[in-house]
């Protein structure tokens, strides 16, 4: 039998890309490729890129530069660029970096095997009529007991700073039946936790025979599947948190008490300039309702500092919002002008000012994260073991609240869902003892 060919995939950016990379690996698997964890012995290198901030985009070009000696030594090595930079820059990538053989956008990657079979430079950044998911091989659970499942793609929100509506296209929800069958398939392969993914996952409105379903309805139906113990979803927009979804946080035990709910800024003027279509008070009210439904929920958010025109007082409004909400975790970014977005037309604020604000916000976020971890000490939580830890007899998994937890449990197996009591907190994880 011929040696299988080797595929190295590097994934940048969000969890949607992690999911897409798995699906591309499966598609190439049907062509006789197996994945490898180094580019050195690969027959094909695929970089699945992110365009969200300038730094993320530039990373592609420095990584391509580093691949040049490999390509010089082995001209047969195929190099592909997938994801949002591929979509945004298309053949420009090959002009700048002629070593790139294939450029494929996020809506066309089911055609990757065909592109890889062809000779010469290949570019496919279509938004095809057909649904790529119908043209991909069956899922393989590749990450143990947890899996991502993309239910929705694209975005119609057009936040003034964001490239996603341009690179990922308009909001599309996958039909209910397909999602349920993909979920069943994952469960049959040992998956116990599914994270439903979408750029605006709570705007989900997938077609079913009985009319469109909301995300809440989808979650309630998944919760009835035997063997599925945990459900999460990300990323959400505050304006799409409907009553039923909020209620589900209170009455669906499988829906885990962690919610990523980006607000971006705490200033009403900046929120308006960002085209977020909600105020800070709307957000506070929403947080109150979610916490009323599920008091122990941990919230996380994304923040952008240094949006064009942001004043010191407006930045202080963001700090104030963070203090008032109290997050379990948060992600903060310095504003990065993205070509083609409305905000990119506006003059930027001084880089030093934005840097100082980012540092100040990150100090607060880190302190809150630490406080949320410390508050877990002494509590009983569920942990799903994902892999053995570094120490002998140790297991690592995620708690209900998405904290990484280390447990000494020599006879345990990956995929077990256990109850633990948290005994300590360090910078990025908790330690715990198993109680059942
Ligand atoms: N500059 C900085 N951060 C951005 N994000 C999106 N676009 C930009 C940009 N142009 C951040 C937002 C979003 C997260 C995924 O990335 O906070 O929620
Ligand atoms: Fe980008 Fe806003 Fe859409 Fe999120 S909601 S993907 S930040 S445009």
How large is the count of helical segments?
13
Largest sheet: 6 strands, parallel
- Name the CATH superfamily assignment of the largest domain: tm_1862 like domain
- Work out the number of β strands: 21
- The chain-level mean pLDDT equals 95
Give the N-terminus to C-terminus distance in angstroms.
48 Å
Low-confidence stretches: none
CATH class descriptor of the largest domain: Alpha Beta
Tell me the strand percentage band. Answer: 15-25%
Could you explain how this protein is built, in words?
The chain is α/β, with parallel strands linked by helices and 436 residues long. It folds into three domains: 5-124, Rossmann fold; 133-374, tm_1862 like domain (pyruvate-formate lyase- activating enzyme, Alpha-Beta Horseshoe), CATH 3.80.30.20; 380-434, Beta Barrel (OB fold (Dihydrolipoamide Acetyltransferase, E2P)), CATH 2.40.50.140. The protein is built from 13 helices and 21 strands. The strands form six sheets. Strands 2-1-3-4-5-6 form a six-stranded parallel sheet, sandwiched between helices. A five-stranded mixed beta barrel has the order 17-18-19-21-20. Helix 9 (243-251) runs parallel beside helix 11. The longest helix is centred in the last third of the chain and has 24 residues, at 351-374. The termini are far apart. The relative contact order is 0.08. The model has no long low-confidence stretch (mean pLDDT 95). It binds 5'-deoxyadenosine and iron/sulfur cluster. Residues 52-53, 161-162, 262, 264, 302, 304, 333, 335-336, 338 line the site of 5'-deoxyadenosine.
């Amino acid at each position: 039998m011929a040696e299988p060919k080797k595929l190295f995939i590097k994934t940048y950016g969000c969890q949607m890309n992690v999911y897409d990379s798995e699906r591309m690996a499966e598609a190439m698997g049907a062509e006789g490729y197996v994945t490898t964890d180094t580019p050195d012995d690969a027959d094909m290198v695929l970089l699945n890129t992110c365009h969200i901030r300038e730094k993320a985009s530039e990373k592609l070009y420095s990584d391509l530069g580093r691949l040049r000696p490999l390509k010089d030594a082995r001209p047969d090595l195929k190099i592909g660029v997938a994801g949002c930079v591929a979509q945004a820059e298309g053949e420009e990538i090959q002009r700048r970096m002629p070593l790139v053989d294939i450029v494929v956008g996020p809506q066309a990657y089911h055609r990757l095997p065909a592109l890889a079979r062809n000779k010469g430079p290949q570019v496919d950044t279509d938004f095809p009529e057909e649904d790529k998911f119908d043209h991909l091989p069956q899922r393989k659970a590749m990450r143990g007991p947890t899996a991502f499942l993309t239910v929705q793609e694209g975005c119609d929100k057009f936040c003034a700073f964001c490239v996603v509506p341009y690179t990922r296209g308009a909001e599309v929800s996958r039909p209910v039946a397909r999602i349920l069958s993909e979920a069943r398939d994952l469960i049959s392969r040992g998956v116990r936790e599914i994270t439903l993914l979408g750029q605006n996952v709570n705007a989900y409105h997938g077609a079913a025979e009985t009319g469109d379903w909301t995300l809440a309805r989808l979650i309630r139906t998944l919760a009835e599947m035997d063997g599925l113990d945990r459900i999460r979803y990300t990323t959400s927009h505050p304006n799409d948190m409907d009553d039923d979804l909020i209620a589900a946080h209170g009455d669906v035990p499988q829906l885990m008490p962690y919610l990523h709910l980006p607000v971006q800024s705490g200033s009403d003027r900046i929120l308006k300039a960002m085209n977020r279509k909600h105020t800070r008070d709307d957000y506070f009210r929403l947080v109150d309702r979610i916490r009323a439904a599920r008091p122990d929920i941990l919230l996380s958010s994304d923040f952008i500092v240094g949006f064009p025109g942001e004043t010191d007082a407006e930045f202080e409004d963001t700090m104030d919002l963070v203090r008032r909400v109290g997050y379990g975790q948060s992600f903060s970014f310095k504003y990065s002008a993205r070509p083609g977005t409305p905000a990119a037309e506006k003059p930027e604020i001084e880089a030093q000012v934005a840097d100082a604000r980012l540092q100040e916000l990150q100090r607060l976020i880190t302190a809150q994260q630490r406080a949320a971890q410390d508050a877990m000490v002494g509590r009983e939580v569920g942990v799903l073991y994902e892999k053995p830890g570094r120490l002998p007899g140790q297991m690592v998994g995620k708690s209900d609240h998405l904290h990484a937890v280390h447990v000494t449990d020599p006879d345990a197996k990956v995929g077990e869902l256990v109850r633990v009591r948290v005994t300590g907190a360090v910078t990025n994880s908790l330690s715990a003892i198993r109680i059942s």
